[in-house]
Amino acid sequence: MNRTLHIATYNIHKGFSHFNRRMVMHELRDSLHAIHADVVFLQEVLGNHERHAERYTNWPEKPQYEFLADSVWTDFAYGKNAAYDGGHHGNAILSRFPIVKWENENISAHRFEHRGMLHCEIAIPGWDEPLHCVNVHLGLFGRGRKTQLLALRSRIEKLVPPHHPLIIAGDFNDWRIQAGEVLSGLLNLHEVFESAHGKPARSFPSLLPLFHLDRIYVRGFQVKTAQVLHGRPWSKISDHAALSATMIRL
């Protein structure tokens, strides 16, 4: 049984570079493919945008998550969080293995910020239990994030058996590094960069990462490596750096 799992999480900024200067979907796809991750957690993914499709001659005909998956990740799930005239965006999970079940839960804290958490169960060959993956993009305000983290904890307690492997990853917008207070303890989760390097990763802005916004929390794994993907080409693709981790199933 293969116990090693390679994952990545990335806020792709809807397929545009800093300040929306360039459409970078093709560069983004090439860079993601080069990681060779088994499972990828993506935030700010456009499911559709009619104006961009009209404006850019090389705009992908498929939804962004399907375009990025290409032939590398055979399964994918998309959770629509925000809808507007001519388009919508949300979170997506790309997987080399079958996604057997998924659900997107609305965790918006107020009507001005549309947020969700995408929960997938993935069947990995040789594993007795499914891998639970939860992709989050939390709000910008502390009170809303606290409510969202409590909703996340409640979902895990209700739907994920304690002995099943679990990964929670995404853009936590957690400037003060408080998410661990809610997710550790009773949930028995640990953050991969804290395990590997003693502190969460600096992931924003990608040109010179200063803030610890993006995280990967796991249960049932030993962390082997954890890496921040910044510098070129990553700094030219999104305002966030991508995070990558290799883990061994316990």
Automatic annotation (TrEMBL):
GO terms for biological process: GPI anchor biosynthetic process. GO terms for molecular function: endonuclease activity; exonuclease activity. The keyword DNA-binding does not apply. Residues 8-240 form the Endonuclease/exonuclease/phosphatase domain. Keywords: Endonuclease, Exonuclease, Hydrolase, Nuclease. InterPro entries: Endo/exonu/phosph_ase_sf, Endo/exonuclease/phosphatase, GPI-anchor_lipid_remodeler. Signal peptide: none annotated. GO terms for cellular component: membrane. It comes from the Bacteria. PANTHER family: CALCOFLUOR WHITE HYPERSENSITIVE PROTEIN PRECURSOR (PTHR14859), PGAP2-INTERACTING PROTEIN (PTHR14859:SF1). This is Endonuclease/exonuclease/phosphatase family metal-dependent hydrolase.
